[in-house]
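User: Assemble these into one structure.

Assistant: Restating your components, then the assembled model:
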Amino acid sequence: NSKVIQTPRYLVKGQGQKAKMRCIPEKGHPVVFWYQQNKNNEFKFLINFQNQEVLQQIDMTEKRFSAECPSNSPCSLEIQSSEAGDSALYLCASSLMGRRVFFGKGTRLTVV
Amino acid sequence: DAKTTQPDSMESTEGETVHLPCSHATISGNEYIYWYRQVPLQGPEYVTHGLQQNTTNSMAFLAIASDRKSSTLILTHVSLRDAAVYHCILRDGGNEKITFGAGTKLTIKP
């Protein structure tokens, strides 16, 4: 069973507001992923980390999203100015290098 | 990036055996095939994975084609609890990239 903890489970924000969600990866996992999942169950990769360093991120993440994984603190994903199209399930996952990925239960963001 | 292709939906009946196909024609040599399942309001749950050989565990049997361009997840004696979206993904351990398809929604009838 996954031990990746995501908070909050649900988040409602108005357009233009900041939205921040947190993730505690499974203990000992150096790799952390963030994905956005839409209502069609399609996944969009956002960013991944190895320890505190960014490995890969997409353009959208660079411009409106910010993410970090500080040592001894939860990882976080923040949307600076929420848009209606950001409404989705945000999934955090962690793993050992090159091994099975464990997902959290997600944060359901609704932008009204 | 290598991609996976799965049928949008499949249906079965309790007690039956289900074969969930996945096509990954451009898979590279160092990519593992992983299967996850996901129910509403939850994150994906690991089912099984393999590289080249068929694998089996308490949840499912994974059959991998000899050319690795396709795989089939086989669920035996399915129950209502097996209803979920099943995702076939490729895991490249060399650069920590994961490629997702849209998944197959499996419906189980009583």
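The two ends of chain A are 33 Å apart (CA to CA).
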